[in-house]
Design a protein that fits this description.
The chain has about 375 residues and is α+β, with helices and mostly antiparallel strands. The protein contains 13 helices and five strands. It starts with a helix and ends in a 12-residue tail after the last strand. Bound molecules: guanosine-5'-triphosphate. Guanosine-5'-triphosphate binds next to β1, α10 and α11.
């Protein structure tokens, strides 16, 4: 029940950065509501002597604190509620000091202001201005001596000094805490983004990886209301081992990077996805109008790769080739990523077996017409 109350019925969790603000609003509003109810009973029974201002303050306090609790539970925006709660806190604390100026205890209640103000506003700048304003208002309360508590100037100076020290010290601690909290949250967020990017991409080429491939395929298979085909092209560089052995691994890495850029240059529509699925193996998911457009794209891809210049130290330029497997299917629900990968992989291996530098379509084994290179 307690947890349900401070989270506004499960609206926030401990891992959520807004958990602190939400729970502070609920705890303060709850405590404030109980305190104002108590004051209302005491004021209306004349325990402190009759005062319209006090009764009005108590009623306003109950209305505002209940409003915060109900508003948060009803799903009101957290940022807006935090600002409103801060405003209510400022006004009520000040009203309490004015309405009960005869009691030193009541005048010191506003000293609690800086801590919740910094947390609610989540801004060192705004909360510092709020604290300075509160200090000035309390000076005014003391100087005007509304309740007649402060007998002489020494008592006034004493009060002003106590208020200044207490508020300034609290504000400094809160500002430090808030700054380090904000820095930690920003650091965690950027770490989370970096990890999410790294887990989805290949570090060498920056392309999406096998993990993302599975996600993209399952998303594509759920896609509806699209009359274009689903096409998957699996590509493998021919004799890459020999390339590495001849030019060295760093040259091999560079070739992979250049090839990744070349593939991205050709498949550059918003809905295209280019993956590095393994060592020298790439995958492309695209949405052609029909099979002939898919075949055209496969032809173009092999041509682009064959036209890539490969620097050969001390010798003539060499050219590389690649083999591919193409899978086309009608849009709508279909097999999982494993099956799609396997079918295209089988087609790609048939392209290797039958001479390389070509593509083969999955299922019907149609060959690229222009033969080997
Ligand atoms: N430079 C570099 N080489 C890699 C990387 N990942 C895998 N390789 C190399 O890719 C080569 C793949 O060799 P194989 O599987 O025999 O294939 P292949 O030589 O291309 O022969 P075919 O595919 O049959 O045409 C191996 O030499 C791997 O070391 C990489 O990230 N960088």
């Amino acid at each position: 029940m307690w947890k349900d109350f401070i989270t506004s019925g499960g609206r926030s969790t401990l891992e959520d950065p807004d958990f602190l603000r939400l729970s502070i609003m609920n705890v303060m509003a709850g405590a404030g509501c109980v305190a104002f109810l108590l004051f209302l009973v005491l004021d209306s029974t004349g325990s402190f002597g009759w005062s319209t201002l006090r009764i009005a303050t108590d009623l306003l306090g109950i209305a505002l604190t209940l409003g915060v609790i109900v508003g948060l539970r009803a799903g009101a925006p957290l940022g807006v509620m935090a600002k409103l709660s801060h405003l209510a806190l400022f006004v009520l604390l000040l009203l309490l000091a004015v309405a009960r100026g005869e009691s030193v205890l009541a005048v010191t209640i506003p000293l609690i202001y800086p801590a919740p103000a910094y947390l609610l506003l989540d801004s060192v700048y705004r909360a510092s201005i709020g604290t300075a304003l509160m200090v000035l208002c309390l000076y005014a309360v003391i100087l005007t001596n509304t309740g007649g508590f402060f007998e002489d100037m020494v008592a006034v100076l004493d009060g002003a000094l106590s208020i200044t020290l207490a508020m300034a010290f609290q504000a400094a601690v809160m500002a430090l805490y808030l700054r380090s909290r904000q820095q930690s949250i920003a650091w965690l967020k950027s770490l989370k983004d970096t990890l999410a990017f790294q887990s989805a991409h290949d570090p060498l080429t920056g392309l999406q990886n096998r993990y993302t491939f599975d996600e993209v395929i399952s998303r594509e298979m759920r896609r509806r209301s699209d009359d274009r085909l689903f096409a998957f092209l699996m590509l493998d560089i021919d004799s890459f081992k020999a390339y590495n052995d001849t030019f060295g691994h760093p040259e091999g890495d560079e070739l992979l990077q250049r090839l990744a850029k070349a593939v991205q240059g050709l498949f550059n529509r918003a809905e295209d996805h280019v993956f590095r699925l393994g060592g020298e193996e790439f995958g492309i998911v695209f949405r052609p109008r029909d099979r002939s457009e898919a075949a055209l794209m496969a032809d173009r891809l092999l041509e682009v790769i064959e036209s890539m210049e490969v620097p050969s130290p001390g010798g003539p330029h060499r050219h590389i080739t690649a083999s591919a497997g193409l899978l086309c299917r009608a849009p709508g629900p279909g097999p999982d990523s494993e099956t799609i990968y396997r079918l295209a992989d089988q087609a790609m291996y048939r392209a290797k077996e039958t001479g390389r530098a070509r593509w083969v379509e999955a299922n019907d084994e149609k060959r690229k017409n222009d033969g080997t290179h």
